[in-house]
Structure formats: C-alpha cells, structure tokens
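ugh ok fine here u go
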Amino acid sequence: MAKHWYQKNRFETWNGLNLISVDGVDGVDGVVWRTADTAQNREKYGSGSTQHGDTAFPQIRMVCQMELTSHQ
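structure:
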C-alpha cells in the first residue's frame, strides 16, 4: 500500500533527492534488539563491552528514517 501511494503522488525533492529526516525529533527512530547469547550470534553481530569485558546478549541495532513530505 505504501509503495502504491508513494508512486502515485509527487513529493518535494531537492536536486532530485527525497527529503529525509536526519535528526531525532523529526523522524529518525531506532531500536536495539538483544539476540540469544550464542557463539554464532556473537560472531555475526558482535557484542558490546565495558571495562569488565563483553556484555551479555549480542545486539542488533536498526535506525529508521522518515521521508519528510509524506512521513513514510
């Protein structure tokens, strides 16, 4: 549905580029997921660390951006 709506409408651009939010107030959002604490996940996703060593549960981080004129 979003793809159809986006293709159907004209949105403002700057030099042919879509206007994407770049600050935390207008539309960039993020999330962190903890994964199962396995050797395979640590190898693939890595792990946070502190002065005491690696933290439990490797983490996956995702950032979402929002197109400013449509809020998609």
